[in-house]
Amino acid sequence: MTTTATATQQFMSTEQLLKHWQGHRNLTRRVIEAFPEKELFEFSIGGMRPFAKLAVELISIGGIALKGIVDNNMEAYTEEGFNPKTKEDILKKWDEETGVINHYFNQISEERLQETFNLFGQYEFPVYENILYFVDNEIHHRGQGYVYLRALGIEPPFFWERF
Amino acid sequence: MTTTATATQQFMSTEQLLKHWQGHRNLTRRVIEAFPEKELFEFSIGGMRPFAKLAVELISIGGIALKGIVDNNMEAYTEEGFNPKTKEDILKKWDEETGVINHYFNQISEERLQETFNLFGQYEFPVYENILYFVDNEIHHRGQGYVYLRALGIEPPFFWERF
C-alpha cells in the first residue's frame, strides 16, 4: 500500500476545534433552555437520566477535564461538586464553564494533543482523542435531549444553529 | 487581545479524522444491528423518524457528499437512490459506503479542507466544517437511536466501543 498524500496533513486547527466545540455548547445551552423547569429535572424515557443529569455530566467533564490535562492531574471523575436545583443554576454554571474551557484549551500545545494522558485516571488516550470524546459525548447526550423534547411535544432548536 | 500560541496549531491530522469517523460508523452499525427488524423500520417516539430512516439519511450523506466535494458537484441532497426493505439491505450498503468514504476522503487535500464549498447546492461552508457536520449529524441521530433502544428495553452498545 502506498502512503496517501493526506497522511500527514492537517484536518483542522486547534482554534477551529475550539470554535466548533463552543458552537455545540451554544446549541446544548438552547436545549437546556427549551425544557420546562420540572421536566428538565424529572422527565426521562426508558430509565435514562433526565436532561438535567446529562447536563451535569457535561459540565463535570469539559473544563475540569481540560484542567486535568493541563495540570497533569489524574483525579477521578466526579459529579459531586455541582448539585443544581434550578435551570438557572445549570445555565449559570454552563456560562462560567465557557471561559474555563477557553482558558485551559489554549494552554494545550499541538505536541501535547498527540501525547497519551490517563484522563480521570481511567481513560488513557491521546489528548486530542479525549477532547473529541468530550464533544462527541455532548452531541450524543444532546441527541437524547432532542427525543425528550419531541416526546414532550416541544420543538427542539435547529441542529445547525450554533452561534 | 494577544494572539494565542495555539492559533495556527494543528488539532488533528486528516488520517486521524478519518479513523475517528470510521470508528463512529462502526458504532452506528452496531446500533442498526441492535434493533429488531420490525422496530428498525417502524418504532419511533414523538413523531420522529424510525431509525431505518435515520440510517438512510446517514448513508445518503457520507460518501455521496465527499464525492460531491471531490467532483465539485453541487447536486441537491436526495434519499431517493436507496430504499432498503430489510436490516440486511441497510447493513450491506453501510459496509459498501465504508470504502467509498475512504476513497473520496483521501482525495481531499489540506488546502481544500479550508476552502468554501456549496455542498448539495445548499450548505456553503469550509469543507472541513461540512465533514465535521457529517460526523456530528451521525452522532446526533445515533443518540436518538439509543433512546429508541432503551424505550424498547434493549441495551445499546457501549458508546466508547468503536473498533
Automatic annotation (TrEMBL), chains A, B:
Domain of life: Bacteria
InterPro entries: DinB (IPR007837), DinB/YfiT-like (IPR034660)
One Pfam family named in its UniProt record: DinB
Single GO molecular function: metal ion binding
UniProt keywords, alphabetically: Metal-binding
Binding site for a divalent metal cation: H141
Family: Belongs to the DinB family.
Protein name, per record: Damage-inducible protein DinB
